[in-house]
């Protein structure tokens, strides 16, 4: 039994570290928590475990190099999966209180929930969702598979560019989130589901 990182539990960055560690071994690695199980090579499955800070997780390792894999994974968890920022937030880090629902607003003002302290001044772009402009089904599965692979390659290239730019601006630790996003593009469960849907006639 191991424990999820104490800082914020099993979120994207530590999950990516775990995926990378599991890929280094032939053995199958399964995590169990709260009645759920996850393949250690699947980012989406790890995040769906719902393992919060310090949560107990059971590791199951089976395969030709299981002893080495188990030892390496235990060590990775002991090191908080690289997510060792356990410092409590100070007063300056606390988000300001939201505007009360019954507090009158100035004409044209929009109430919202603040995410960080401070004041921002600029142009507001209001997001509105729109229906995607593509057909739900297709008759050329090979073409759709090729389109999927092209989209994956384009997404990888964009994420690498964003990671480099972020590393230059704020450092490698914060840029690591983009490496975690790259793992979604390699997630065996997501890819299997997408390819199966295409084979079944989805676009």
From TrEMBL:
* Recorded superkingdom: Bacteria
| E.C. number | 2.7.1.69
Q: Which PROSITE patterns match?
A: PTS_HPR_DOM, PTS_HPR_SER
Q: Which UniProt keywords apply?
A: Transferase
Where does the chain cross the membrane? none
Q: Which InterPro entries does this UniProt record tie to the protein?
A: HPr-like, HPr-like_sf, PEP-utilizing_PTS_enzyme, PTS_EIN, PTS_HPr_Ser_P_site, PtsI_HPr-bd_sf
Top-rank EC class of the record's enzyme: transferase
Output the GO biological process annotations, alphabetical, semicolon-separated: phosphoenolpyruvate-dependent sugar phosphotransferase system
Q: Can you give the residue ranges of the HPr domain?
A: 1-84
The question of whether Transferase is a record keyword is answered with: yes
**GO terms for molecular function, please?**
transferase activity
Q: Which NCBIfam families match?
A: PTS_HPr_family
Family recorded in the similarity comment? Belongs to the PEP-utilizing enzyme family.
Q: Which protein are we looking at?
A: Phosphocarrier, HPr family
The gene it comes from is: fruB3
């Amino acid at each position: 039994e191991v424990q999820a990182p104490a800082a914020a539990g099993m979120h994207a960055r530590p999950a990516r570290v775990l995926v990378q560690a599991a890929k280094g071994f032939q053995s199958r690695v399964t995590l169990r928590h709260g009645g759920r199980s996850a393949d250690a090579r699947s980012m989406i499955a790890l995040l769906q475990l719902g393992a919060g800070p310090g949560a107990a997780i059971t590791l199951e390792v089976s395969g030709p190099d299981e002893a080495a894999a188990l030892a390496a994974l235990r060590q990775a968890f002991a090191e908080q999966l690289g997510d060792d920022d356990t410092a409590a937030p100070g007063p300056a880090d606390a988000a300001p209180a939201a505007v009360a629902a019954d507090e009158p607003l100035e004409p044209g003002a929009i109430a919202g929930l603040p995410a960080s302290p401070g004041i921002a001044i600029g142009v507001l772009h209001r997001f509105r969702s729109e229906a995607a402009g593509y057909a739900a089904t297709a008759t050329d599965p090979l073409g759709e598979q090729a389109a999927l692979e092209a989209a994956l390659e384009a997404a990888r290239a964009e994420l690498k560019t964003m990671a480099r730019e972020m590393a230059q601006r704020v450092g490698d630790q914060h840029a690591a989130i983009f490496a975690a996003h790259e793992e979604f593009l390699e997630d065996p469960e997501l890819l299997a589901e997408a390819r199966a849907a295409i084979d079944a006639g989805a676009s």
